[in-house]
Specification:
alpha/beta; Spore Coat Polysaccharide Biosynthesis Protein SpsA, Chain A; two-stranded antiparallel sheet; single chain; seven-stranded mixed beta sheet
């Protein structure tokens, strides 16, 4: 049984940042930063790129990396990541994929500042604390509001505003790393379940490429 399998999803057709997975920053495709991080993580014994992008497939061939070609009906913008993972794992390892792999590590290429040390540390926490699932995040003291028919101060009480030093941290899931038990994932069909752990990263390393401003920050950071 393989203890840790990494899955890198790379769907084409991004709207806000066109072709973001294969855009080059410092002469390197954005997805390659995630591929290299996975390759450098000693605990990861198998890496699967799941994609419907021919340019990503060509890159996988150059990197001698295993890839899975996603059909159109599993590559839509509204297709959930859980559905993509289940489909990929089932097609790669069989319906009872959990008999061949113990844990899955989801690494989204839109988090290029996450490196192998982050993955190593998250695996260590996952294993030591015996978590069922884990996600990476960053902490921040923020004045957050939400609107549900009326405005509600979500992370604090606006009537008794505190100095930020006295506020509790708000935890932001950053999408860079997810680790979860394969067998329980097959049952819950969700990447987070059971005893959930957190691996904390800095806010800058938590950069998630979603808007063009994120791309500008990345170019200045790498």
């Amino acid at each position: 049984m393989i203890e840790y399998v990494a899955v890198i999803p790379a769907r084409k057709g991004s709207i806000r940042i066109k072709n973001k997975n294969i855009l080059k920053i410092k002469k390197k495709e954005i997805i390659k930063y995630t591929i290299e991080a996975a390759k450098k993580t000693k605990k990861i014994k198998k890496i699967i790129v799941t994609t419907n992008d021919n340019r990503v497939i060509e890159l996988c061939k150059k990197e001698k990396l295993e890839y899975f070609i996603r059909p159109d009906y599993i590559s839509k913008s509204e297709t959930s990541m859980e559905k993509t993972l289940l489909f990929t794992l089932t097609k790669t390892f069989g319906r009872k994929f959990y008999n061949k792999i113990k844990n899955v590590i989801l690494l989204q290429p839109t988090s290029p500042l996450r490196n192998h040390l982050d993955i190593d540390k998250s695996i260590k926490i996952f294993k030591k604390k015996k978590y069922d699932s884990l996600f990476s995040a960053y902490k921040e003291k923020s004045f957050i509001w939400k609107y549900n028919k009326k405005l509600i101060s979500f992370s604090y009480n606006y009537k008794f505003r505190k100095n930020t030093q006295k506020m509790n941290d708000t935890i932001f899931e950053n999408g860079a790393i997810y680790i979860f038990n394969a067998k329980k994932f097959a049952r819950f069909k969700n990447r987070l379940f059971g005893k959930i752990g957190i691996y904390f990263m800095s806010k800058i390393k938590s950069l998630d490429l979603d808007e063009k401003i994120d791309l500008m920050i990345l170019k200045q950071t790498i």
